[in-house]
Hints:
Elements: E1 38-42, H1 46-51, H2 66-72, E2 77-82, H3 93-105, E3 109-114, H4 137-156, E4 164-167, H5 182-203, E5 208-213, H6 219-231, E6 238-243, H7 250-268, E7 271-277, H8 284-299, E8 306-312
Parallel strand pairs: 1-2, 1-8, 2-3, 3-4, 4-5, 5-6, 6-7, 7-8
Helix pairs in contact: 4-5, 5-6, 6-7, 7-8
Amino acid sequence: MKNTFLLISITIFSCNWGCSKNKQAIITTTTNDITTFFKGADVSWVTEMEAAGISFYDSTGVKTDLFSLLKQKGINAIRLRVWVNPTNGWCNTNDVIIKARRAQQAGMKILLDFHYSDSWADPGKQSKPATWLNLSFLNLTTTLSAYTTQVLQALQQQNITPTWVQIGNEVDNGMLWEDGRASTNMNQFAALIQAGYQSVKNFNKNIQVIVHVSNGYNNSLFRWLFDGLQANGAQWDIIGMSLYPDSTNWASYNNQCIANMNYMISRYHSSVMICEAGMPVKQPAICRQFLTDLIQKVRSIPNQQGVGVFYWEPECYNNWQGYTLGAFDNTGKPTEAMNAFLQ
């Protein structure tokens, strides 16, 4: 979700964007072999919202299933966060299966977003699940691997196979702190990423593995993190990014983000994806401009290495959970921002 924290100083890692490309010795990533450009939405809140009595409507005011409504708006992929043991049950494995089944029935591809936590994981917090707190690092690594496989197996039993799996969420400074804090234990963070990567590939080699970092315009952050992962033997297929501009800076953010994407492709031979995007719901016209431009830029990356653009929780309205970056109005209808995905 939107990053409001700054954990580490990036300036110490800065260098000119023109610095020479690192030799590709450790990592051998695969390029995107999917011919479709993906326009996606993270709708992980949907079952909780529906349980609270919230409904969704098309432009004429007809009550409509959210997945059908998003499909009408051009969405062809759904992202779902996975929590280990959430207190209220939302976003646990069973809840994810329910949403994934609905996405599959709507003909959409699925991106699983493993937070490896019982609640939110983002740049400001990367807490271990309660049942993992006292594990040694070796056991933490094997538990992460086994859990990842377990969730994939649970989905497979329902004849659901995700197209992508995200190992960690906005891992700007690693995950599963303190063991996997990148600024102090980069080698252990890399081992955790590799454990997740390997468990996914052992389960199904065709699933694409994503490592996701916030602030897609911040080249210094991405270069520091992925250089560290590469140097410590971690693998991935896609570099994921978040992008949350406002009405004054979206154009410059988009330009910086696409420059960073092209740099990531060149430096690490990875495909790239916008895993999260958002803008204040009260600025739908500007949000549409932002998304239209971003989609066009990502889609124009050569060799289909720009995989797609996902909006984060567009279905939120009426200040649901205090989130104000949705793309539905207060009557439960999509705003014009969602029309960007129709192009």
